[in-house]
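W.,

You were right to be curious about this one. When I first looked at the sequence I had no strong expectations either way, so I just let the prediction run and decided to look at it fresh. Below is the sequence, 446 residues in total, followed by the output.
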Amino acid sequence: MNKRYFPIFTTNIYIRPNLDNMVVLISKILKRLGFTPLLKENFQVAINSIKTTRLRSTLTILIIAIGITSLIGILTATDSIKALMKENFGRMGANSFTIRSQFSETGSVTRRARIINDRNITASQAQDFVENYRLPSITTIFANAVNNATIKYGSVKTNPTVTVRAVDQNHIGYAGAIIDKGRNLNNRDLEASAFTAVIGSAIVKALFKGADPVGKVISVGAARYEVVGTIVQQGSTFGGSVDNQVWIPLTNGKSTFLSDRSYYVIGIVPAEGVPQVKAMDAAEQLFRSIRRLSPVDQSDFRLTRSDAVMEDIMKIMSYVTIAAFVIGIITLLGAAVGLMNIMLVSVKERTREIGTRKAIGANSSTIKQQFLFESIVIGQIGGLLGIVLGILAGNITAAIMKTPFVIPWLWMFFGVLVCLIVSVASGYIPAVRASKLDPIEALRYE
C-alpha cells in the first residue's frame, strides 16, 4: 500500500494521514492563524478582569444590549410586516388594479376643468364597464356599505371595526380569498337581492366561539343576514383585511345601505400573460367612453395599481428602518463612551499589574492585545444579548400584529459587526495607553 504525504502551507513538513498527524496539522494551522498559547492566556486574563469588575462590565453590556435591542427589535418587526405585505400582495395578484373616483370620499376639491360627471362612479357605470371589458381578467364591483359596523349574533357582538362590503360573486377572486366553510355568494343571491353574507375569520372567532356559523343569522344594524360561508384567515393588511369584513350581495347592499351618491369601485385582475400596462390602457379607454369624456378632457377617475400601493408601504417601512438605525446608533455611541471610560479606569487601576507583566517579559503588543480583548468581549456579549432580546421583542410585536415570525439574519450579522467596531474603537485608546506605560514607573505606582 502506497503511503501518501500532504504539505502544510509552505513548510517542508510532511505527515501521514492518521489521527495523530491530523492533530498536529490542526495545531499548526491554528498557530499560523495566530492562536498561540500567549493569545489564549491574554484572553483568559481579559475574562478574569471582566469578572473582577462585574458591576461596571454588566452596566456597559446592558447599555450595548439596549442599543442593539432597539435596532434589531424594530427591524425584525418591520421585516415581519414586509413579509406579510409581500404574502398578501402575491395572493392578490401583482397585476391587479382598481378604477375609483378621482377624489376622496370626504375631501373637497376645486376643479378648473369642465365638469361632465358626478365625482362618484355609479353602479350603472361600473356595470357597463364589467359587461364591455374584453381582455381576459377577473372583474368585480364593490362598495363599502357600512364602515366601522358592529355585527351581532344573539347577545354577542363584535367591536365597531367591521367593514360591511357589498360585492359581486367575482370579488373573492379579486381579493385572493378562499372559502373555508359553506359557499361564496352566487348569481342567485345577486338576482334575488338576498339577505345572505360571507364573513371573515375574525368575525367567526368573535361571534361563534368555535361553533359552525353557516346557517346562522347575524345582524348588521336593523338588517339580518344568513351566513352562507366563511373565509380562510388572511392576516392583517394595510388595505383592510378580509378577516374583519362581511360580504353581502351588491344588489342587496344597494337597496339596504347604499344610495345613488355612493362610491363604487371596480377591481380588475388581468389573466396570466396579459400585461398590466395593456390591461390598464384598455380599461382607461373603455371607462373614458362610459364617462362620456372627449379626447381633450382629463380623466375624472383614477387607476390605482396594487404594486403602487405596495411601493408606498415599503417606502414608509424604509423610513421606519432608518429611524430604528439612527436610534440604535445613538444608543451605541453612548455605550461606546461608557465602554471607553471603563477601559481607561481599568488601565489606571491596573497600572502595577501592567508593570509586573512587562517586567517578566510581556511586550507592548501583548498588553495592547489584552485590553482590546476585554473591550471586544464586553461588546460582543452585549451585542449577542441585544440580538436575542431584539428578535424576541420584534417577534412579540409581530405576534400582536398577527404578522409572520421572522429571523433577520442580515441584521443579526450587522449587529455583531457594529458591536465589534464599537468595542474596538472604544478599547483602542485605553489599550494603546496601557501598552505605553513604562514598567519601572508602573511598578512604583500606588
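Here's what jumped out at me. The chain has two domains: 35-86+313-444, 103-299. And, maybe more interesting for your project: DSSP finds 14 helices and 14 strands in the chain.

Coffee later to discuss?

I.
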